[in-house]
Amino acid sequence: MMVVTGGQNSMDIRTLCIHAGDDPANSTGSVSVPIYQTATFAHPALGESTGYDYSRVQNPTRAHLEKAVAALEHGIDCMAFSSGMAAISLLMELFRPGDEILSSDDLYGGSIRLFRSVSEKNGLHFQFFNTSCTKDLEKHFTPTTKALYLETPTNPMMHASDIRQAADVAHRYGAILIVDNTFMTPYFQNPLDLGADIVVHSGTKYLGGHNDTLAGFLVTASSELSEKLRYLYKTIGSCLAPFDSWLTLRGIKTLAIRMEAQQQTAAVLADWLSRQSRVTAVIYPGLPDYPDKEIHFSQARGAGAMLSFTVDTPETAASLLRSLSVIRFAESLGGTETLITYPATQTHSDLSEEERNSRGITDCLLRLSVGLESADDLIADLSQAIQ
């Protein structure tokens, strides 16, 4: 389904978060989008349709959500999935056995697991390397390269890659650029405006924003890619359910105020952590010593609310995780609650120890997703836990 936003193109993103996808022809006057909890739709007559036939193909609640996310990412179409991994799994079906995909080597561990355990089994080839070294990008392309896959910033080491340059190089070799924009969200970064062809989101994270639903998205910049993905979408059937679509829509309405508040607190925590004796490094785009600052702020409007830090010993890390009370030791990110993750045994446990250490994912690394709690309370919690 193509997205038509009309006058919404000129709206401030804070307004779009609330009104993107609104239907001016809504005859009921409903302010909140109804939940169309139905599997199928009746046909008026032979050869006639209301525009909806079967919820695997499309559903009015999900359609509203897809229009909203497409508008926020400045795309022409969006597909909503049952999870972020479901979205990436379907995306891999664009490619044929023998095709090569280049990818950031610092990447969400679940994506690496999918690529290695499933996509490679199906005949795809992957080359992982540090995509933040922009001068080296071109040497990795081969005649079989069909796509470049990026996270920027990466998970969990927060490396930034130059989206504009990556798009230029990829297109010069006839490949597409795919950018996972989960960490930044469309509130802070719009990869399609910088030349990307497809944007990926785990909607479970900031878009849903409340740690209460799973969702994933693919947003496209071209009708050609949209048509290919829509065909796969209706065939494979990994679509987002109506109620989860509604929950994600509800979350998006507060995306702007959440991102601003969470970013503000993240900056306070990053500064505080950088002054603690047992903390050996803090990686956050908003800090003065962030190594990729120039690249990041050439394409993003903020630093976000994700940060990683290392402590002096694995024992300190274990003690901290055990002692926290306000901050939750849990998988995931981007919700109202502040969550801390231990990548070595959680998000990146499928990597070998050698691989993890080579990427900086050591037994001393912790990842923090800053929520909406008071900065003072979070600092107090970290302070008592890090002793």
What does this structure look like?
With 387 residues, this protein is an alpha/beta fold. The protein has two domains: 7-252, Aspartate Aminotransferase, domain 2 (3-Layer(aba) Sandwich); 256-385, Alpha-Beta Complex (Aspartate Aminotransferase, domain 1), CATH 3.90.1150. It is 34% helix and 15% strand. It has helices at residues 13-19, 60-72, 84-92, 109-119, 163-172, 185-188, 223-236, 242-252, 255-273, 293-299, 314-323, 353-359, 375-385, and strands at residues 77-81, 100-104, 125-129, 145-151, 176-180, 198-202, 216-220, 279-283, 306-311, 328-329, 339-341, 365-369. Strands 1-7-6-5-4-2-3 form a seven-stranded mixed β-sheet, with helices on both faces. Helix 5 links the parallel strand 4 and strand 5 (176-180). Helix 2 (60-72) runs parallel beside helix 8, helix 3 runs parallel beside helix 4 and helix 11 (314-323) crosses helix 13. Mean pLDDT is 95; it is low at 1-7.
